[in-house]
Amino acid sequence: MNLSSNEVGDALSKGQGVPLSDLDEGECGVVIRFSTASKLRIRLREMGFTPETMIEVIRSAPLADPIEYSLKGYFISLRREEAKEIIVRRIDGKRKRRRFRFGWRGRNK
Amino acid sequence: MGKEKGEDFALVGGAVINKRIRVGLAGNPNSGKTTLFNELTGSHQKVGNWPGVTVEVKTGTIYYEDYEIELTDLPGTYSISTISNEERIARDYILDYCPDIIIQVVEGPNIERNLYLTTQLIELEVPLILALNMYDEVKEKGIKIRTKKLSALLGMPVIPTVGKRGKGVKRLLEAVAKLAGHSHKPKKPVKINYGHEYEGHIDELIRMMNHPEYREPAYPSRWLALGLIEGDDYISARMHLSDEDRKRVMDKATGIRNHLTNLYHIDPKEYIADQRYGFVSGALKETFKHRPQEGLSVTHRIDDILTNRILGLPILFFLMWLLFQATFGLGQYPVGWIEAGIGFLSGLVSSIFPTGPVKDLLVDGLIGGVGSVIVFLPNILILFLGISILEDSGYMARAAFVTDRVMHALGLHGKSFVPMVMGFGCSVPAIMATRMLESRRDRLLTMLIIPLMSCSARLPIYILFAGTFFPNHAGNIIFGLYLFGIFCALVIGRLFSSLFFHRGYSPFVMELPSYRMPTARSIVFHMWHRVRIYLKKMGGIILVGSLLLWFLGAYPKPPDKSGSPMISDNGTVVESGEGLQKSSKLEFAFIGQLGRLIEPTVQPLGFDWKMGVSLLSGFVAKEVVVSSMGVLYSAENHQSSLLQNALVKSGITPLVAVAFMVFSLLYTPCLATVGAIFRESGSKKWTALSIIYQSSLAWLAAFVIYQGGKVLGLG
Lengths: 109, 715
Ligand SMILES: Nc1nc2c(ncn2[C@@H]2O[C@H](COP(=O)(O)OP(=O)(O)OP(=O)(O)O)[C@@H](O)[C@H]2O)c(=O)[nH]1
Ligand SMILES: [Mg+2]
Known about the structure:
The complex is a heterodimer.
Chain A (H helix, E strand, L loop, with lengths): L4 H9 L3 E3 L8 E7 L6 H6 L7 E7 L6 E5 L2 E5 L1 H4 L2 E5 L19
Antiparallel strand pairs in A: 1-6, 2-3, 2-6, 3-4, 4-5
Chain B lengths: L9 E3 L3 E12 L5 H9 L16 E7 L2 E7 L11 H13 L3 E7 L3 H14 L3 E6 L1 H6 L2 E3 L1 H8 L3 E3 L8 H13 L14 H14 L11 H10 L12 H22 L3 H18 L2 E3 L7 H9 L5 H18 L2 H21 L4 H18 L2 H17 L1 H15 L7 H7 L3 H7 L6 H10 L9 H11 L4 H27 L9 E2 L8 H35 L21 H13 L1 H13 L6 H9 L5 H15 L5 H7 L4 H13 L4 H11 L2 H28 L4
Parallel strand pairs in B: 2-4, 2-5, 5-6, 6-8
Antiparallel strand pairs in B: 1-2, 3-4, 7-9
Helix pairs in contact in B: 3-10, 7-8, 7-9, 8-9, 12-15, 12-21, 13-14, 14-22, 14-26, 15-22, 17-18, 18-29, 19-21, 20-21, 20-27, 20-28, 21-28, 22-26, 23-26, 24-25, 25-26, 28-30, 29-30
The structure holds guanosine-5'-triphosphate and magnesium ion.
Magnesium ion binds next to helix 1 of chain B.
């Protein structure tokens, strides 16, 4: 269940690992690890951000921060700053959904 | 734990054995603990659809079979080992109070994360019951949970409940009774396996702690050992060891921690959390089936609009506007009827009682004072109705989500927004609610600005003055005052945060619950609760205050020149001469003397001494401002006519009215609020700051408005 640091390094060097905050709305990622800078890594771990957990980006708040995520069947919001410390592997095949929107598409990078 | 306590049965009445057991309701935030608590005990504790509603321990008693069950509702907690303020309260109850049984309330659709806490409770070896709550939503979402199997895997009764409708409550009690009866029967405990390496070290620590020379530990040694390996700071105080031995064990644990960290390249705490989740997903593999939903959930769709990039903030603004407009607009009709009723009553009393002090006391003191405030009951009810819909629907968490960015930029926290909205109702529970904020800095800041949110007690002042002086724009004027309060709160928040606090690290981790339809029942209870509080205030502090004020206004009597102190009160227009006479009488009385004393401080704001006295009396409770005016102005005119007319006649201009409303909005929080700030901050310094800064701010703002307005020729 746990990836060793080598594997994490591999994943990152292969360009698979990205900060969670880099994902667009509607995209999914799988948790690889937390960056050591994260002060929240224990708390988030206990709330279900364990390795191999699938996380979906639901939406960001009106002023682009915080961001709402979904995991393990519930919804949680994190600030961008905190989401940056969670390294995920982007899942291909973005879920295509027709969404009711007035706004523009996410512009995070 | 728990096991040793199983014996405290009491012999009641010699023959009947009344078994007393202590049961705690624990669980993740917003899982429905308080809802079940209310169902079980018949109480009406506050329920709301956002995490962190309950912030203190509440206890109730139930009699079931021959058990006397002391049931305790706890604040929500995600884990035993992490710490926000209210989570610490729950943890301390579980660890130090040693309940005989814990009912863990689990949010059914969200069972995976909820079971994390279960794994910790299993390790604590407390007798456990799992209340699989929100079972209605489980079914609605097409989730299948095999409860029997789950119960076997977790080693505890699993009981589906629907707290909202009281379903499953009976079975919960049966389970409690059954478990209490079997508390000595050894059961094969469920064990979470942490892998060979970890288990070896756990055993090593257990052996050290279970040394025959040591006292028997009060907690399961496996739990202590795990806690030590996790590095939880609250463990060491809970090991019953001498200082020397404790140090040995702690040093050993530190060694193990370092060893394990180097071996697995991961903090043992994270490793252990992962294993616990591994256990949970193992247990759910065969018992939990989730049919993938077609399309988006209702909550998702609602949020696409309510937290939309562009519409999110305007909608929040609109909802607030709607709330205050409704409070004033819809409230007007019933207010009219109550006013008419009070007018009738006052006429009746006038005609029944002979002229004299008794009649004056009743008409001027009682009806003038209490009556002038009680008319606003409908407005206040509508306001609370609106707030409770916001709370019960789940919008509060969204409001925090939508505003976090702005609040953060101002040095506050998105979650501060929730207590701030509650502050529109009453500052006291709002200040209590700041416990949901993790950092002390955020808590203090929020506490300091909450009184700037116009609470319902200030509403009567606004309605009275805005309705009297701006009859066509009252709703908007009141909304403007609310906005001005929020504006001041944000500015002050920004100022204080840079003046007194370092910018600390306070993350925004907030669960966004599903939207839920507020039930009529919970709203009715909420309303009824408010009505009771309001009426109690009327019968208590406001009644006493009004009578006291009437007395201070009636005595001592001026030396009698005209021969008779009685003045006709047939309800006709009072001659100016007569009014003057009456007014000078008031000035001669105690109240007038006091008024002269404070007049110089309020004169620059355009207030007369009676307004000053009313504001002063409002320190007790802000409704008293209006009741005092009721007494003072009706005493002056000695008429049963409405306070409104009296105010207009007394020469208050619209400009003064605005200055007065702004002053009432900003000045010193009421006594109860000051008490709450003191209790929650635990500091005289911050409490004093709160009083001083608000009074100065109020005075300054009113001064600028009045003098500025005069310069602009508005006065
Ligand atoms: N659909 C449904 N909703 C429920 C049920 N039980 C409770 N609720 C709702 O869930 C929300 C949370 O209920 P609370 O009782 O306040 O939850 P709590 O666990 O006490 O929450 P905190 O005090 O914040 O930890 C409220 O909106 C309830 O009306 C249930 O069985 N079904
Ligand atoms: Mg609660």
